[in-house]
Amino acid sequence: MQTGTIVSLAIYFIAMLGIGFYAWRKSTSDIDGYVLGGRSLGPGVTALSAGAADMSGWLMLGLPGAMFAAGLSKAWIGVGLFIGAFINWLVVAPRLRDRTVEVGDALTIPDYFGKRFPNGVSVQVVSSAVIIIFFTLYTASGLVAGGKLFDSAFGESYRLGLFLTGGVVVAYTLFGGFLAVSLTDFVQGCIMFVAMIMVPIVAMQGAGGWDHAGQVIRSVDPTHLSLLKGVGALGLISSLAWGLGYFGQPHIIVRFMAIRSRKDIPTSRNIGMSWMFVTLVGSLSVGLAGLAYATENNVKIDDPETIFIVLSDVLFNPWISGFLLAAILAAVMSTISSQLLVSSSSLVEDYYRRFLRRDASQKELVLAGRIAVLVVALIALAIAWNPGASVLNIVSYAWAGFGAAFGPLVILSLTWDKITRNGALVGMILGAVTVGIWIALGWSDWLYEIVPGFVIAWVSIWLVSILEGDKAQTIQPVAAE
């Protein structure tokens, strides 16, 4: 590894730890500050924090790799994500910000479910279990991405990459809590934004320009630039259905709970969607530009998911290369930190505080949260020990699990006053179980598991709630912005 690259990465790591130290001094004296930042985030930090937490390592590894290997038809995933994110900002964001305060200052998504329904402890406990299970898997995908970065870009051990990536994330998350996670996400989002503009443009120029690059790509596969290459009706539905996952991702929608005011949401939405559009287009372009560059210059790509890493290494001087590789770490670490914090928050708020230590002091709860961060990180590290794991596959499973289990429940709990506790519980369980069964049976190859999971969860909530309509809690749905 060259000196410039080492220095750039060192500066990045020090900056992240510095933000964690600042947040530790400012907002971790009580559990509200540790898990939700005291609901004080501005629109810019909220937008980029939500975006960076969303666009994990798959933005720079998984999605470009899919474009490199399969072609433009993989762009439908980006289209589905963009539509889903926009609807999420419109439907969920303003309502969730108000409702979580109105039900009794809920600090976590399971806490909101528990307070939203009469005798909702069962809903809270089950939803918290879903979060812990799926987020441990999700966190593992981020560690895999970090390990691949060190292996491909630096020639260092994959497992050394796991420890370094996980170690820095755990340090600033454990000490700085939600504020550290949000502020580091903001910085990381800015780095990702610049990187996803620079790399595809320079790579395309290195391939001979846009027109020539297109010719090169067609020489490899005449159908590679077709949006409909190998895409049937079910394939199109599967790709677009990624957007359904947004409504149930706790690490994303928790940002809506933390924004300082409902009035800031339109501004935050505009910033967030603009950022997302640029980074998604950049990610898709990296895959295509990378294929053109590698073909034109006889660069061997053993693993398509490393195309961004390869381009960063061969196209730029070590100082810029270090910055670009830090962008991958930014994408990876921003998501890992968010998932660790949400998981630990659920362990503390939904289990430890509710069942073990109802009278625990604020200092004790914060300490318990830090211990929980460490425990979840260690389990995720064990899962990520296998270097052959696919980032996109791991993310797709966890994304589907959350989307099916929580998506319909979040939307209906905010917009429909006839939903009952049992309807919520049955829908959430069936949504998660359907995703697991679908994956186990190998049916994901022809239809993304989030589709049946989401539909079954929605229908189950509606049907059970209608059948026991007299048990619904009378509550006025929150209006949109």
UniProtKB/TrEMBL annotation:
Belongs to the sodium:solute symporter (SSF) (TC 2.A.21) family. Keywords: Amino-acid transport, Cell inner membrane, Cell membrane, Ion transport, Membrane, Sodium, Sodium transport, Symport, Transmembrane, Transmembrane helix, Transport. Coiled coil: none annotated. One of its GO terms (molecular function) is sodium ion binding. It is found in: Cell inner membrane; Cell membrane. This is Sodium/proline symporter. GO terms for cellular component: plasma membrane. The keyword Cell membrane applies. It catalyses: L-proline(in) + Na(+)(in) = L-proline(out) + Na(+)(out). The chain crosses the membrane at residues 6-24, 75-96, 117-140, 160-183, 190-210, 230-254, 275-294, 319-344, 365-385, 397-416, 423-441, 447-467. GO terms for biological process: proline transport. It comes from the Bacteria. Catalyzes the sodium-dependent uptake of extracellular L-proline.
